[in-house]
Amino acid sequence: MPEQFKALQGFKDILPNEQPYWRMVERVAVEVANLYGYRRIETPILEETTLFARTTGEGTDIVEKEMYSFDDRADKEGNRPNLTLRPEGTAGVVRAYLEHGMFQLAQPVKLYYLNEPMFRHERPQAGRVREHHQFGCEALGDGDPAIDAEMIALLYDFYAHLGLKHIRVFINSIGDGNCRPQYIEILKDYYRPLLAESCRDCQVRFYKNPLRLLDCKEPQDQPKIAAAPKILDYLCEPCREHFDAVQRFLRVYDVPYELDPLIVRGLDYYTRTVFEFTSDIDKLALNGGGRYDGLAEILGGAHTPGIGFGAGIERIILEMKRQKITSPADELPLAFVVYFGKSPEYKEAAVRTVAALRHNSIKTEMAYGDRMRMPKRMTGAESSRINSSALVRLRMLLDPLCGNSFPWEIIQDCTPCFIRQHYLNVIVPVYLGNSLFSTLRRKGNVIRCTVLNRSISLE
């Protein structure tokens, strides 16, 4: 027997019963992004590896351990470029901004991406997989602190519109090229005598990425982090004014926030405002973002202020389920057609009825094959496709003795409504929700009926 294939570890199918959550997240994301004036962009899944190596940082875990990279097939000159499946969204957006000359447009250029797959070879865990999808926003071309506040407010409104509660917003400023180098030296002076007692990762971070010392999660290092110098105490005057303005504008937006001096970004192109959103239920981060005023220069462009965030959709849906938020259910069919008998005329009449209803935008399903059950006997997938409340029954009865002389009749029988037609040589019951058929009339061999105020033909 052939081997049965399964999805790769860390890669998941998004099944039909999960789709309502995804559609809900996508709908809310589009509504909120449009409200704030952001326009959609889509970038390729594949980019040159050097794009992410430069922007994510040589020597980082993402570049060294997590990226899916491979040599492409040789081109005409025999070159084999190294390509990478996109691990994050910002680099591709900034590359597109520069490549297509969007710096010539009115600034800032405000963009969002949605349901974009990202790939990282990391240990799968709750809310984190090797292929995940993101909703993200990027604002490029202006360093106004009002944009920082707008970005955070947009994300806060997004979570609020999804119905999420207990969301906490943490912000910090990590300074810029003027004040941050001085702070890093002060931080290293503090850690130098403590280095032997620090975890192995922190001993490496001390030399490669000192700011990440504050991001350590090892219990033994938490007292050192708590007593470490805080970067907010060492901001230069322009950075302090910028951060004060961000906080002032956040209060205008009515976004509750808390200062967290331990939110850091280890790469040099990150500047000033950084932020994280967490759930107060499980204390886990929902997403993070920040200002990256030096990123465009790394990619060969002019100095271009920028700020953005990326939010994992799988993580958001997990939080929605934890908070018992239900997504809108799929719209059930308004009609379900069942035919009785095995001769081709029966099925042909059923298909004709289904086609007439669908041509008039009435969502309709039918029984296929030999499954010709009445609703009260339906189970499983068929029963889930029928709106079982307020059923109306349309029935075309086989009565060859009557010929073509009988019009349609509406016969009340308790709750169901039987609509009986005697000239067709078939039996086709149709189950309709919410009393769709309101009037019927006959003209020759064509039956006209009004369904949801739309006149349709059942020939």
What attributes characterize this protein structure?
elongated; 459 residues; BirA Bifunctional Protein, domain 2; 20 strands; 6-stranded mixed beta sheet; alpha+beta
Account of the 3D structure:
- The chain has 459 residues and is an alpha+beta fold.
- It has two domains: 16-179 and 235-322, Bira Bifunctional Protein, Domain 2 (BirA Bifunctional Protein, domain 2); 335-458, no CATH class.
- It is 30% helix and 24% strand.
- It is built from 13 helices and 20 strands.
- The strands form four sheets. It has an eight-stranded mixed sheet with strand order 1-5-6-11-10-9-7-8, with helices on both faces. Strands 13-12-17-14-16-15 form a six-stranded mixed sheet, with helices on one face. A three-stranded antiparallel sheet has the order 2-4-3.
- Helix 1 packs antiparallel against helix 5 and helix 5 (145-161) runs parallel beside helix 9.
- The protein is elongated, with a radius of gyration of 31 Å.
- The protein starts with 18 loop residues before the first helix and ends with a strand.
